[in-house]
Amino acid sequence: MNPLKKAARWLNDRSGFTEMLKPLLDHPVPPGSKWAYVFGSATLFCFVLQVATGVGLALLYQPSSQEAFQSLQYITYKASLGKTLRGIHYFGASGMIVMVGLHMLRTYITAAYKYPREMSWISGVVLLLLTVGMGFTGQLLRWDDNGVWSAVVAAEQMGRIPLIGKSLARLLLGGDTLGGQSLSRFFSYHVFLIPALLFVFTGFHLWLVMRNGISEPPKAGQLVDPRTYRQWYKNMLRNSGVPFWPYAAWRDALFGSLIIMAIVVLAVVFGPPALTKPPDPSNVITTPQPDWYLLWIYALFALMPAKIESYVMFFGPLLLFFLLFALPFVSNKGERSPIKRPWAIVGSCFVVIVVVSLLFVGKNANWSPNFNAKALTKVSIPATDSLALSGSVLFQQKACLYCHSINNEGGKVGPDLTHVANRLSEEQITIRIANGAKNMPAYGSSLSNDELKKLVAFLKTRN
């Protein structure tokens, strides 16, 4: 006998692998479970990819505030295949969020959350939240300006929650202020806590699929009756069910493999998101921009009137979570076909259009700081004296350029400073920088007198 076959037979005899896998592979599924059912397994493919690439990154990443940024630079620019590994991990997170979103959308449109699969929906909502949590905590681990201040903004939002807000913010950051303990805490969230919960709830979700079966494709007029559904489903599988392998599994394997290949191609072509610069606690002018899957929330809060922001920030998530968790309890029987439930399609389209629109607005709106702003050209720096020239350098180093433009170079969040000297005196410019203004923090405590003089000298040349 072939030595490999002999070893495999010995391993199976001692471990019972086939006894464990055979029921899974032979598990009958409803006929007609085709391409619309592949998003759940594709999410699992992405999760396995995230675990594999996450382990690779963790071998090189240094979770300390002094070395985290440098270790990511080493991974990206010096380690063999490090840039590709970071890219796969980044696009894998995006792929996982897209797939879990499509899976939940398909579940909602086909009402697969109805009896007896209410717990499958609830565990799916938990998995969605954990997936988003993985993305958010991973952003801070880059330990650059953008990631660090995104965590600060999240903590400030939590702090607005009545009674428990400050405690939640402390739990998130590991203290009253952002520091090395925050990085250690986010590393624990991202590498240990959330993945462990993902493993638990994924296992629970799959066990529920085995126990209650895959929902059959809905047919108009075929109602779900909790009193008779289980027996009807059992008879349907006995008469027309097909084994999961190979009749249904091949689509899952093919689609999941294509998604992984697409993620790898994106990682090779585009690479990981660029690191901005090491975090500077004294630099309070940074306006963070989260990764794209959280950008729509950022856009929503930025567009709404400031006086209702706190109320929406507190009641909005509560209402959303209540609706998601309550859905299978208020509608667990009756019609499943989307043809007979047009409001489900309209509602789904509305949510998709709103989220996509907010993503577009959040990406392109003028109130988004331009973190990719290039250094001012010589045309925008007419100064000849050394003080003003030094101020032009500070204008970029202190990230003024992210929010203000000069000759259309820079961000659009703040006022255009091309001719600022024509409308503000030297004293007014100094007061504005030191004390701040609407939507502009005060710089008085983060700039030395010498730096302030240089900046004012540069801006005085703008007339």
Automatic annotation (TrEMBL):
GO terms for biological process: respiratory electron transport chain. Residues 7-218 form the Cytochrome b/b6 N-terminal region profile domain. Gene3D superfamilies: Cytochrome Bc1 Complex, Chain C, Cytochrome c-like domain. Residues 234-362 form the Cytochrome b/b6 C-terminal region profile domain. It is found in: Membrane. The chain crosses the membrane at residues 35-61, 88-109, 121-141, 186-208, 253-271, 314-331, 343-362. The keyword Kinase does not apply. Keywords: Electron transport, Heme, Iron, Membrane, Metal-binding, Transmembrane, Transmembrane helix, Transport. It is a multi-pass membrane protein. It comes from the Bacteria. InterPro entries: Cyt_b/b6_C, Cyt_b/b6_C_sf, Cyt_b/b6_N, Cyt_c-like_dom, Cyt_c-like_dom_sf, Cytb/b6-like_sf, Di-haem_cyt_TM. Residues 386-463 form the Cytochrome c domain. One of its GO terms (molecular function) is heme binding. Its main location: membrane. This is C-type cytochrome.
